[in-house]
Amino acid sequence: xxxxxxxxxxxxxxxxxxxxxxxxxxxxxxxxxxxxxxxxxxxxxxxxxxxxxxxxxxxxxxxxxxxxxxxxxxxxxxxxxxxxxxxxxxxxxxxxxxxxxxxxxxxxxxxxxxxxxxxxxxxxxxxxxxxxxxxxxxxxxxxxxxxxxxxxxxxxxxxxxxxxxxxxxxxxxxxxxxxxxxxxxxxxxxxxxxxxxxxxxxxxxxxxxxxxxxxxxxxxxxxxxxxxxxxxxxxxxxxxxxxxxxxxxxxxxxxxxxxxxxxxxxxxxxxxxxxxxxxxxxxxxxxxxxxxxxxxxxxxxxxxxxxxxxxxxxxxxxxxxxxxxxxxxxxxxxxxxxxxxxxxxxxxxxxxxxxxxxxxxxxxxxxxxx
Length: 370
Description:
The chain has 370 residues and is mainly α. Helices cover 57% and strands 4% of the residues. The chain has helices at 12-64, 70-82, 84-91, 93-119, 131-140, 148-172, 177-185, 197-226, 309-314, 318-325, 327-336, 353-359, 361-366; strands spanning 231-237, 255-256, 273-278. Strands 2-1-3 form a 3-stranded antiparallel beta sheet. The radius of gyration is 25 Å and the shape is elongated.
């Protein structure tokens, strides 16, 4: 911890916070891409196979007559059980994305390490979070009461329950096989949003986006924990726009010790993140008299300043505002003075991990990833 890197005096924790907020909406773009890939798999393979088998099996039952009684109920339950392997695909989605989540977690770990190396004005021998530790925490650490696999298992269970309920409801009401299948699938005119599987798609989107948030925040905390010699706390950052929930808004700015307190995602679809609070020079055992006056305020150990998302975004370059809101809304934000709380951060923006690295290349260069 010897040589000092000279630069413009600033509060290091404010600088790290600034970088984290910017990174948050890039992460939302990663979530969007991952979710669309998973839902495309459902729409292209799983759901068509499910509907085809439903149509065939229901037609056979209808051919001998729906009796609306216990016999038909048993046959419906048996029918659902016969293609349980298809329904299992909803629970197996975790296995399909586990590799990509781990790649994301390692990318986030590198990004966080790179940001610390960029913003902390002294040379520190940083510890790298162990990949296997990140993998195990990603798999085994619950959020909002469930692990990732348990969330996908829940998706499977609720999808099966809705299918059984809708089929039984259709039989009771005297609907034909075609009508029952249409109620399950939805109609093309409404882009299939009126079928019960639309709920499954929405839940899949929420779970996948939560899985990405879980991977990101898990990886960052592992970096903080590995470097607790100079990181003393973890601060909660909420995305303060028109969609910020009543659970997350009060947590904005809260600081916890490493390994203590709540962490995002605190609920499904949570968009919050964590940032580091570094120690001061004195707290790290560095004699401040040996530090040039121009850098003394950089490592003061103070919690990042309170700042609203609106204030932060106003101070960002045009390209950052465009990334966050989209060009049209960003122009309204600049020209009309509209508060960002009137907007929802855009959800039509996608990034791959390679594109994410290209957005913030210096952090990954510092971390040793060109």
